[in-house]
Amino acid sequence: MLDVAKIRAEFPILSRKIRGRPLVYLDSAASAQRPRAVIDAISGYYEQHHSNVHRGVHTLSQEATDLFEGAREKVRRFLHAASTREVVFVRGTTEAINLVAQSWGSSQLGPGDEVLITWLEHHANIVPWQQACARTGATLRVIPIDRQGVVDQQAFREMLGPRTRMLAISHVSNALGTVLPVREMVAAARELGVTTLVDGAQGVPHGPVDVQALGCDFYCFSGHKLYGPTGIGVLYAREAVLAQMPPWQGGGDMILNVSFEGTTYNELPYRFEAGTPNIAGAVGLGAAIDWFGALDHAAVAGHEATLLAHATERLQQVPGLSLVGTAPGKASVVSFTIDGIHPHDLGTILDSEGVAIRTGHHCAMPVMKFFDLPATARASFAVYNTTTEVDALVDALGVAREMLG
Ligand code: C6P
């Protein structure tokens, strides 16, 4: 059993009141909150160790470099990557996918090639590929989903073929909560020599990932959904693939030697980290990984499954409410609509009750179009949420229905 009361006590923001009511934070899929350990690691870094990294011989620069590279090693262990050369710090999932689509995409894609994504993707795993296809003449193909929000595996097998060069898929859908069978899909792609990318933005917050067991070439995630800071994220890239990729941004730190005649590039992963990095962000991410990694992950999974089951059962009893996304395998995300009430109005009334959810298209407009909806309301649960908070959501929906329904 997860000691949720103890976990909650570690998150200062959870004791806040919103409009005079206790905060019920059900928007962790957008961004999770941070435990004291992460906040302290960031302020401790600034109070005691800050300087630029990889540049100075003075003590502070060496300390900052050690902390920054120490965080990289924590990420490596967390993902079970073979080497820190495979761990590139980026701003977040969005930047990671743009890096791959630009660097790998421009060097590897050409006319006739196909990039395969699913209908469930976040815009971050659609738009960079559309841009890469426009630049290179490759074609973007989309694997369909069914009304439950499950990716059609038969269609996937039929679409995977000799023209496929890249399979880029979510680990977990942010809009619907569907958990994709990434291991099987990656294995099928690899059999044909297809390069694979997994968007793990909604995957890692639910438990550690083993990129070697998964077998993907690229895996990316954002720190802020993993109880860490904003502005820092990770691109894991298999060394053999990363080594073949051209740098995507030029500047300091990514070079070995620069003259006006030409430039030689730094070794991996620094070749892909131009400019002063988000040092405090990396330190905070390392602290978040330490904090999250110390939890009992079977207990985390059990707790999140309880929250999802409780929410699904209680929401289904709300008159006029339709769940959007009912896949058998789901992470702790529930999307829904209520007859006659626009999700934005719902979100505003819930806020007046202290309940924070996300409303809108969730940066997954094709998913909304598939279900013929402009938007949904979405509640998402993290380790610090409780079934009492799910009940508070349901009560607040009752208030909204009385006012607007
Ligand atoms: N989803 C949500 O409310 P960034 O913004 O780079 O940290 O992450 C982008 C991203 C990529 N893929 C998936 C599956 C995501 O869920 C997200 C971010 C947030 O669902 C904000 S739109």
How many helical elements? 14
Query: Which fold does the CATH topology of the largest domain refer to?
Result: Aspartate Aminotransferase, domain 2
Which CATH architecture of the largest domain? 3-Layer(aba) Sandwich
Distance between the termini: 39 Å
Biggest β-sheet, characterized?
A: 7 strands, mixed
Total strand segments: 17
CATH first level of the largest domain: Alpha Beta
Notes on the protein architecture:
The protein has 405 residues and is of the alpha/beta class. The chain has 2 domains: 4-30 and 296-404, Alpha-Beta Complex (Aspartate Aminotransferase, domain 1); 39-293, Type I PLP-dependent aspartate aminotransferase-like (Major domain) (Aspartate Aminotransferase, domain 2), CATH 3.40.640. Helices cover 40% and strands 18% of the residues. It has 14 helices and 17 strands. The protein has a 7-stranded mixed sheet with strand order 4-10-9-8-7-5-6, sandwiched between helices. A hairpin with an 8-residue loop joins strand 13 and strand 14. Helix 2 packs antiparallel against helix 10, helix 3 (59-79) packs across helix 10 (279-293) and helix 4 runs parallel beside helix 5 (127-136). It is globular and about 70 Å long. The mean pLDDT is 97. The structure holds ligand C6P. The site of ligand C6P has 17 residues, from helix 4.
